[in-house]
Amino acid sequence: MILQQLYSDAGAILGENLAPPMYDRKPVRWVVRLERDGRCLGIQSLGGTKDDKRGRPQTVPYPGPRAGSVIRPSLIADTVAYVLGIAPDDHRVVAKHSAYKALIKRCALETGDLDVAAINLFLSQHDPSLPLPDEAAPMTAADLVTFRVGGSYPTDNLDVQAFWAKTARPEPEKGAKLAECLVTGLVGPIESSLPGLLKRIPGGQTSGVALISANCAAFESYGWERAQTSPISREAAERFTKALNRLIENERTHITVGSLVYVFWTDQGGDELMAMALDKPEDTQVRDALKAVLTGKQSHLLKTDAFYGLALSASGGRAVVRDWLTTTVGHAYGNLEKWFEAQRMVLPDGSEGLPLGVYRLAGSVYRDARKEMENSVPQALIRSALYAEPVPRSLRDKAVLRCRAEQGVTRNRAIIIKVSLMTDPTFTTQEQEHYQRMSQLDTTHNDPAYLCGRLLAELDYIQYAALGKLNATLVDRYFGAASTAPATVFGLLLVNANKAHLPKLRKSKPGIYQALQKRIEEIIAPTPDQPLGLQNFPATLTLQDQGLFALGFYHQRAADRKAAAEAKAQKNAALAELPEGPDAAGTADTNDNE
Asked: CA geometry: angle at 170 spanning 168 and 172, to 5°?
């Protein structure tokens, strides 16, 4: 299904850039400029800048795999060793250059192409031992070199492309097996090695990884070897490989999270909005474009268009399919809009916050996301965003454990906990809707775990107001115990606050004392659900309760910071309205003391 869809949509994905048979897009670093009589006009650099170190991508002939000691030149465009015979550290450079010249000569004779004849004439006079022009001094062995004759590239000539398609495509092996292609349904010879490798997959080999392969007898059966175990024609493999590489190459049609790379496309071509929306949803232009699709204002995408997503990782020299999504544009983008709405969560200062990308959410549950991230985490988030699947409890538990390990709650983890609660299928619809509204402090939520989180944040604020900055705060010392076994610590913390911190505030900052004392009383006050109030602290909290604790802690802190900022702004505004003069200074001093 996956390969069939990629094969079917390759034309739309690649557009006018659908490469000819046995051609591929590669970064070309140097161009040898020739006249029609074979005279060299110079060697021009393509790219090589900070943003384009390897060269400028061009559609050039593809030689196929050259593993081990295989010498197989590519037509016209190839490495420095093949094209110019220059590679001091390569003991096979003479053989490579000779094979390249023989291929060019053969192409010139069979096609009669004047541009190729000019290259052949140049090579017959070229001496690899002579120094290159100064402009080609930084040339390296890995650079690709091609030719331009007059004002055109011979690789674009139709007769050259036809020659290479015939030459590079190997003849069916003697006694080659015939089978029905799993992609096209046509019966034909099945080869043991398919053309093309997938590039830029995290953790894969730099030369690329194979999507279909079998490298030992345990994976082979009934005499089918290597790629024959999944019979696919060369033409089909080349087509879907090019389409997939284009999706991975374009930064607007893929997203890389940990060791996963997700690509997205529709039956109209590569989807350039979805990857950006999942990676950088805080971008205003991305959200505006998303709304345009949902409202039908964007003409090239319809809600009924098919939408596809594919996740890949690498294992050695092979690609591994991790996930496969198929739906419609309307469903995918509608679910994405709901996903952004579900992420509503105030910033640490209490102001309105924007949704976060998948990597920022997934990475927040790890100490070092680059080394520790499991594929299942971003996969679960993306499926929740596009398929409206529940965020698994395991991910919520990871967020809770990370909060305990770091003795605090970040907005990223608060979002994960909230979305997991509101999508938990074990809750009623009413409960899920209530959790969805918990984007900021909810004074009506009387769950003991949520109230305990609020209380810890408030006691920590009281300590800070009374003593200022400390090397080890109350949260640093007691967050873990307070979030797992509240009864063991809150009695002590309340006693300390009433005996040490609040009395000090009552004398030095009576206004702040009254406000904080009132907040504490509101948190622990009796309610219909808790007739004894929060004085009867829970002995232990489950992981689910610890998630509520984390939300309560985060919400209360954000609300306190917002209230403090508003109070400060009001005070500054009042001071700004005072008349100038000695009396104003005296009044200001009096207000500061209060």
From this structure: 160
